[in-house]
Amino acid sequence: MEPPKMNPVVEPLSWMLGTWLSDPPGAGTFPTLQPFRYLEEVHISHVGQPVLNFSFNAFHPDTRKPMHRECGFIRLEPDTNKVAFVSAQNTGIVEVEEGEVNGQELCIASHSIARISFAKEPHVEQITRKFRLNSEGKLEQTVSMATTAQPMTQHLHVTYKKVTP
After folding, report:
1. Overall domain count for the chain
2. Is 100 part of any domain?
3. Other beta carbons within 10 Å of 32
4. What is the pLDDT of residue 165?
5. In this structure, are residues 159 and 22 in contact, taking their beta carbons and an 8 Å threshold?
6. 97: exposed, middle or buried (Cβ count in 10 Å: 0-12, 13-18, 19+)
7. Cα 80 from chain centroid?
8. CA geometry: angle at 133 spanning 52 and 105, to 5°?
9. Is residue 129 within 8 Å of residue 155, measured between CB atoms?
10. Quick check: 106 and 142 in contact, CB under 8 A?
């Protein structure tokens, strides 16, 4: 079976497609946490629909134990640069982020966040993400967040090397 043809609506995000591995390990920090490192594998794909599918799977760099997981979809409003990022996370958070793609940079911010009734406090109230393809062809992601206890602060930064198209 032949791979599906990319829907032209998602062409502005084609630079994100592939399997990516953190290189070097990602760095996490937040005022209520000890700084930490993590490995992450990212899969961004399409099935011919006007949407990209994604999964982010983080692992402890030493033990390789699973850590954060999230999966979802990236949609573009046709004939615009407006993007929606819809994500479900293993922490019990479901979020919709919206923003814009400009060239090889995607900047999004939370539009709505829902959580399970027994989610750990403090609760995440706002998230921003920036993805960009750098001059070395590596994908970078920076995540900032605000909680009920902390103002908007950078939380994660990771650089990925593409391992498959």
Report:
1. 1
2. yes
3. 9
4. 87
5. yes
6. buried
7. 21
8. 70
9. no
10. no
- CATH number of the domain at 36, please: 2.40.128.20
Rounded distance between C-alpha atoms, residue 69 and residue 132, angstroms: 21
Given a contact cutoff of 8 angstroms between Cβ atoms, the answer to whether 83 and 72 are in contact is no
Question: pTM of the full predicted structure?
Answer: 0.95
Q: Is the peptide bond before 122 cis (omega within 30 degrees of 0)?
A: yes
Q: How far apart are CA 5 and CA 23, in angstroms?
A: 30
What are the two backbone dihedrals, phi and then psi, of residue 109, each rounded to the nearest 5 degrees? -140, 150
Summarised one tens digit per residue, pLDDT across range 134-150 is 999 999 999 999 999 99
Q: Which pLDDT does position 38 carry in this prediction?
A: 98
Token pair, residue 143, equals 């995540």
pLDDT score, position 62: 97
Structure tokens given for 121: 């406090």
- Structural domain includes residue 84: yes
The answer to whether residue 159 is domain-embedded is: yes
CA of 97: how far to CAs of 37, 38, 71, 135, in Å?
25, 23, 13, 26
Is residue 3 domain-resident?
Answer: no
DSSP state of 6: P
Q: Match 């993400």 to its residue by tokens.
A: 129
**Does residue 3 register a pLDDT over 90?**
no
Identify the domain containing residue 112 by its residue range.
Answer: 8-164
